[in-house]
Design brief:
Elements: H1 5-22, H2 24-31, H3 38-43, E1 48-53, H4 61-70, E2 73-76, H5 82-85, H6 95-106, E3 110-118, H7 124-127, H8 131-148, E4 155-160, H9 183-194, E5 199-204, H10 212-227, E6 233-236, E7 239-241, H11 248-256, E8 261-270, H12 274-287, E9 291-296, H13 322-332, E10 356-361, E11 369-378, E12 381-390, E13 395-396, E14 398-403, E15 409-414, E16 417-419, E17 424-428, E18 435-436, E19 441-449, E20 456-461
Parallel strand pairs: 1-2, 1-9, 2-3, 3-4, 4-5, 5-6, 6-8, 7-8, 8-9
Antiparallel strand pairs: 10-11, 11-12, 12-19, 13-18, 14-17, 14-20, 15-19, 16-17
Helix pairs in contact: 1-2, 8-9, 11-12, 12-13
Bound molecules: ligand G2I.
């Protein structure tokens, strides 16, 4: 609606009357509504407003100007995915991800990591794998990438799109899922062990109302929370067409009530009702105290993966659309104030509240090898990283014997063949890490339940 000077003064009179009758809260809400960018208006209630960014567009000045002006959070659109970060097994490439992270840091923005494990955009070598070999590769990927970005990210989408569409509420079939139903919790534990400060999220689409798929995820999150699996947040992608489900807000709220942060992670909306639906989604987040922020999946319509649908807030020339104004108005109208949370692994009062790292080393034997164990522990579990170092001559195969404390058991492992799971557990190199030059090292790892404190490791050439 266009405000004439007459309607403006009528509106001013009405709000003055309301302010008098409702007291100070309205005055505060009104005075808070002055921000003129998405990021600043979201910040009034403690929230972020983010966008997906493509590293290849960081040389486009229109794109970068809007990015710098409007957004306070960045999600790399493709650059932190598995195919980008580990194009060959064990060879990591952080060029694109680091470029986006540096852009964010240098302009005071934060980054949502996306995505450690997803059945799409697996590198070709992983697509061709199955079973325990794949499980090892998955966990190593999570550990390596989360370690590279340790302490630098707001959150990680640890697992993306693992549930099936339709009425089953079940997991989606994939080679990841076929490694065992516990792959999701194993990934969350490995991510927490590698980076205790990033919030760990599960992210999916078609979960924007109460339906079989979102309920399947809800049940998983509830189960994880009850068993102490470290999950901090759930992402709702919200790729919408024409409308949002009537129970959009109620669905966010039921997840929030499980004790997790909720985030709108990939918002884009097509259809003639676009501006109104953007307003509805924004208000829903603002109404849920644990909804920490919204991210749109691209800046201009021409940047969208939904070619020809024009689902974003800026047109191809970078002009603000009606949808932009609808979001800005909704943000400026205010809502619940969100309280920042930090990731915590549930603990009992008698156990440490933060992961601890301890290292034990055996003495190198000339011509042989040594092993050292570095441990990340939480209540009821641990990840052990074992470093195998060649002595004064090269190794052409190695074996490591670990002794686990009573009550500890290995649940998954990577980069080594395993014999046994409790007590004395032995490990042998796999095909790609048996050869180690003199004085050089290679690593393998395993995840376990119970306490790993006091694990010992001894290495022998084989
Ligand atoms: O598919 C839409 C999104 C659904 N949720 C997860 C998101 O990660 C996903 O994003 C899209 C990106 O927006 C696209 O840019 O994921 C697609 C991949 O499934 C991305 O598309 C790919 C193209 O398919 C590749 O051909 C291309 O090499 O982008 C790659 C990098 O430009």
């Amino acid at each position: 609606m266009k405000m004439t000077s007459r309607s403006l003064s009528r509106a001013a009179l009405a709000s003055a009357f309301l302010a008098t009758s409702l007291g100070v809260s309205l005055v505060l809400a009104t005075s808070a509504g002055a921000a003129t960018t998405l990021g600043a208006s979201a910040a009034q209630t403690g929230r972020y407003f983010g966008t997906a960014v493509s590293a290849g567009k960081l040389g486009d000045s229109t794109y970068v100007n809007i990015l710098n002006r409007e957004f306070t959070m960045i999600t790399p659109e493709n650059e932190m995915k598995w195919d980008a970060t580990e194009p060959n097994r064990g060879q990591f490439n952080y060029t694109g991800g680091d470029r986006i992270l540096n852009q964010a840091v240098s302009t005071g923005k934060r980054v949502r990591g996306h995505a450690l494990l997803w059945y799409q955009q697996e590198p070709g070598w992983a697509q061709r794998m199955e079973g325990s070999d794949l499980r090892q590769a998955m966990m190593n990927h999570v550990t390596q990438v989360a370690t590279h970005y340790k302490g630098k990210l707001y959150s990680w989408d640890v697992v993306n799109e693992a549930f099936a569409d339709g009425g089953s509420g079940a997991r989606r079939d994939s080679n990841l899922q076929r490694t065992g139903n516990d792959w999701i919790e194993a990934a969350f534990r490995a991510a927490r062990a590698a980076d205790p400060s990033a919030k760990l999220c599960y992210n999916d689409y078609n979960t924007d109302g109460v339906n079989a798929k979102s309920t399947g995820i809800y049940n998983m999150v509830r189960d994880f929370k009850s068993r102490g699996v470290p999950i901090d947040c759930v992402g709702f992608q919200s790729h919408l067409t024409n409308s949002a489900p009537g129970d959009y807000q109620a669905n966010l709220q039921r997840f929030a009530d499980l004790g997790v942060e909720v985030q709108i992670t990939e918002l884009d909306i097509s259809g003639s009702n676009q501006a109104a639906v953007y307003g509805t989604v924004t208000r829903a987040c603002l109404a849920v105290a644990r909804c920490a922020g919204l991210t749109v999946w691209g800046i201009r319509d021409s940047d969208s993966w939904r070619t020809g649908e024009n689902p974003l807030l800026f047109d191809g020339s970078g002009n603000k659309k009606a949808a932009y104004n609808a979001v800005l108005d909704a943000l400026n109208a205010g809502g619940t104030t969100t309280t920042p949370t930090t990731p915590t692994t549930p603990t009992t009062p008698t156990t440490p509240t933060t992961p601890t790292t301890t290292t034990t080393t055996t003495t190198p034997v000339p011509g042989d090898c040594s092993a050292s164990v570095s441990l990340n522990s939480w209540n009821g579990g641990f990840v052990a990283t074992v470093k195998v170092t060649a002595g004064s001559t090269a190794l052409d195969g190695w074996r490591v014997t670990t002794v686990l404390p009573a009550g500890a058991a290995v649940t998954s492992a990577w980069n080594a063949g395993q014999t046994g799971s409790t007590g004395t557990v032995t490990w042998a190199n796999v095909t790609y890490n048996g050869t180690v030059a003199a004085g050089q090292s290679t690593e393998f790892g395993f995840q376990g339940t119970g306490s790993g404190d006091g694990i010992t490791a001894a290495c022998a050439a084989s």
